[in-house]
Design brief:
alpha/beta, five-stranded mixed beta sheet, 288 residues, D-Maltodextrin-Binding Protein, domain 2, 2 domains
């Protein structure tokens, strides 16, 4: 039996579809799944680049670099379709976009979609500070940098509130994306599957993932406490259930954008990023 190495990202919204498989509520057919919890998006991206995992949840921006080695799961293309998960650009002091282009920007990885969208839509920054853990970015805003692209907005705003930090909204990636794309879904993350696996194994995983995702969405009250426990252990700090619930609910919307619309958003993203010299050319959008 084929063993598939799954690198699950310790982020509530990306984690919830995997939990029924991890806990045995849904069982795959014909394959064995071996799970590792990966704490940060950049660590996920690094693991995928190094082929340490067969399945994981990298940034959509990583695909041009891995297109020869991984498929994108067509039922798992996370896309923002409104301002709720629209990546607001937050600042420690009031500023216009012109000033933002000269300020120190905090990101949680250089291969992330958030940083790629900033480069694509805003372009310049003064200095870059990389802080891999998303909630640690909140602590750094105003101390190590003046700007932050808040990917996980619900958790970020909660963290900033707990820290007593006042922030200002400069703009959001969604506002700028919506205008330039004609309101297409904005790519966020993807689930990818290694092309080194047999087609049968890939199909078995896809079937299992889709069943697991549906089970999780129908049994959200069972999923949330497990999610909280995994997240707390991986991040090294407690998360409140209400924050996890809000994050999952937002990401359920992201993961249920129609395949046709999500694909259009991805194609526009890769085409524009290549045109502006931000990402390499995608030779083939290999969905499965």
């Amino acid at each position: 039996m084929t063993t598939i190495r799954v690198g699950a990202l310790a982020d509530s919204g990306d984690l919830y579809p995997f939990i029924p498989l991890m806990e045995g509520y849904v069982k795959p057919e014909g394959v064995n799944l071996e799970f590792t919890i990966i704490p940060t998006v950049q660590s996920v991206n690094d693991s995928v680049i190094r082929k340490e995992v067969d399945v994981s949840v990298p940034s959509a921006a990583l695909y041009p670099f891995i297109q020869g080695d991984y498929y994108i799961l067509s039922s798992a293309m996370a896309s923002a379709v409104d301002g709720i998960t629209g990546m607001p650009l937050l600042s420690s002091k009031p500023m216009e976009i012109g000033e933002a282009r000269k300020s120190t920007l905090i990101v949680h990885g250089t291969q992330t979609t958030a940083f790629t969208l900033f480069r694509l839509l805003i372009g310049k920054y003064g200095k870059l500070v990389v802080i891999p853990r998303v909630l640690e970015e909140a602590k750094a805003l105003g101390d190590k940098g003046e700007l932050l692209v808040a990917v996980h907005e619900t958790k970020m705003m909660y963290a900033l509130k707990k820290l007593g930090k006042q922030v200002h909204r400069v703009t959001s990636m969604w506002d700028m994306w919506k205008e330039i794309s004609g309101n297409l879904p904005m790519p966020m993350g993807t689930v990818v599957v290694s092309k080194e696996l047999s087609r049968e194994a890939v199909q078995s995983f896809k079937d299992a993932y889709e069943k697991s995702k549906k089970w999780a969405e129908k049994n959200i009250d069972t999923i949330i406490p497990i999610d909280v426990k995994i997240m707390t252990e991986a991040q090294g700090s407690p998360l409140e259930e209400e924050v996890v619930r809000a994050t999952i609910n937002a990401d359920i919307a992201e993961y249920n954008v129609s395949r046709d619309q999500a694909e259009k958003g991805l194609r526009f993203f890769y085409s524009l990023a290549e045109e502006r010299g931000v990402l390499p050319k995608v030779l083939k959008l290999d969905l499965i």
